[in-house]
Write a structure and sequence with these properties.
- The complex is a heterodimer of chains A (118) and B (114).
- Chain A has 118 residues and is mainly β.
- Chain A is 0% helix and 55% strand.
- Chain A is built from no helices and eleven strands.
- In chain A, the strands form two sheets. In chain A, strands 2, 4, 5, 6, 9, 10 and 11 form a seven-stranded mixed sheet that branches.
- Chain A is globular.
- With 114 residues, chain B is mainly beta.
- Helices cover 0% and strands 54% of the residues of chain B.
- In chain B, the strands form three sheets. In chain B, strands 2, 5, 6, 10, 11 and 12 form a six-stranded mixed sheet that branches. Chain B has a four-stranded antiparallel sheet with strand order 3-9-8-7, with no helix packed on it.
- Chain B starts with a strand and ends with a strand.
- Classes of the chains: A mainly beta (118), B mainly beta (114).
- The interface between A and B is medium-sized, with 26 and 26 residues.
Chain lengths: 118, 114
């Protein structure tokens, strides 16, 4: 079974703190993603990584950074947490699927981290 | 532009009955994949089923099947013999071949009644 784990299910931080959210996958997937999910706004992509040390901005990268030093681990960093970053954060990984017939790999998600910034 | 539309914000179904959740998509790429995910109240997104644009047959996974109508650009999820544990949010998603991004719909909340 594919397994994606996230470091915390619930997290409470104060405004201005530096916050690290970690994600680990055990399926040797090339791609990893960070989303945030807010009521009425759906899933929004923050960053994704298609290889070690490679990263691309998603739709809402402002206020966030990421790190991927090892293939299995993808970290999301909030440099200075703000109240508008209170949200559910979901990590996912997927197989690349670069050739027709390989199938476009499904994303497998971690359990999510509910972050509250006060 | 890529887009996923789920027009049913909420649905009810009686236990043991079948239910269809609607999904339409828009893309100009002939190669793409369509996915359905389930999100229970716990928050985790669970992958259910995948359909490739070149697949000749509709995908099935246990009680889940995908009614793929390419010309109409629809990819409806059919859940047979609904169970109370099927109560959750359901998301339709798409990824175009050669891209890394997945596009998600806004979801449908399904409630199974005893």
């Amino acid at each position: 079974d594919v397994k994606v784990t996230q470091s915390s299910r619930y997290l409470v931080k104060r405004t201005g703190e530096k916050v690290f959210l970690e994600c680990v996958q055990d399926m040797d997937h090339e791609n990893m993603f960070w989303y945030r999910q807010d009521p009425g706004l759906g899933l929004r992509l923050i960053y994704f990584s298609y290889d070690v040390k490679m990263k691309e901005k998603g739709d809402i990268p402002e206020g966030y950074s990421v790190s991927r030093e090892k293939k299995e681990r993808f970290s999301l960093i909030l440099e200075s947490a703000s109240t508008n970053q209170t949200s559910m954060y979901l990590c996912a990984s997927s197989f690349l699927g670069t050739k027709p017939g390989q199938g476009l790999g499904a994303q497998y998600f971690g359990p999510g981290t509910r972050l509250t910034v006060t | 532009a890529q887009k996923i539309t789920q027009t049913q914000p909420g649905m009810f179904v009686q236990e043991k009955e079948a239910v269809t959740l609607d999904c339409t998509y828009d893309t100009s790429d002939p190669s793409y994949g369509l996915f359905w995910y389930k999100q229970p109240s716990s928050g985790e997104m669970i992958f259910l089923i995948y359909q490739g644009s070149y697949d000749q047959q509709n995908a099935t996974e246990g009680r889940y099947s995908l009614n793929f109508q390419k010309a109409r650009k629809s990819a409806n999820l059919v859940i047979s013999a609904s169970q109370l544990g099927d109560s959750a949010m359901y998301f339709c998603a798409m990824r175009e071949f050669g891209t890394y991004k997945y596009i998600f719909g806004t979801g449908t909340r399904l409630k199974v009644l005893a």
